[in-house]
Amino acid sequence: xxxxxxxxxxxxxxxxxxxxxxxxxxxxxxxxxxxxxxxxxxxxxxxxxxxxxxxxxxxxxxxxxxxxxxxxxxxxxxxxxxxxxxxxxxxxxxxxxxxxxxxxxxxxxxxxxxxxxxxxxxxxxxxxxxxxxxxxxxxxxxxxxxxxxxxxxxxxxxx
Length: 159
What we know:
Layout: H1 7-10, H2 15-24, H3 34-42, H4 46-59, E1 77-83, H5 90-98, E2 103-108, E3 115-121, H6 124-138, E4 143-146
Antiparallel strand pairs: 1-3, 1-4, 2-3
């Protein structure tokens, strides 16, 4: 990631923030008050959990907070895509790409292919349509990399 996202420099994370990040990657408990349950596990109040999640989200540490749905398991389709975006148009292209509801996440990379994003749709044909729309709107070719095998990874921080 380039200097465009300096979220880590904007916030001083403490041991509870790190533990919260690690715990939430395993999902929220399916109970009436999930943040109270998380707080109990961390030794902090429900309100403190909610405040921390909000602060981490606003600071950019959490780029999104919500459920993750596996489109293919639900009968849909998804595809990893990449673009070689001219640096002086990067933000403009990112805004156009991100305006599509089918874009699940979008990342900048220090590489010739500097924009990577995931498309999640109901059908493979819709992936093709969205790719054509993005290319028409941005004037930049979209390379598509369909999933061959799925790997589950996590990001853990020192707590």
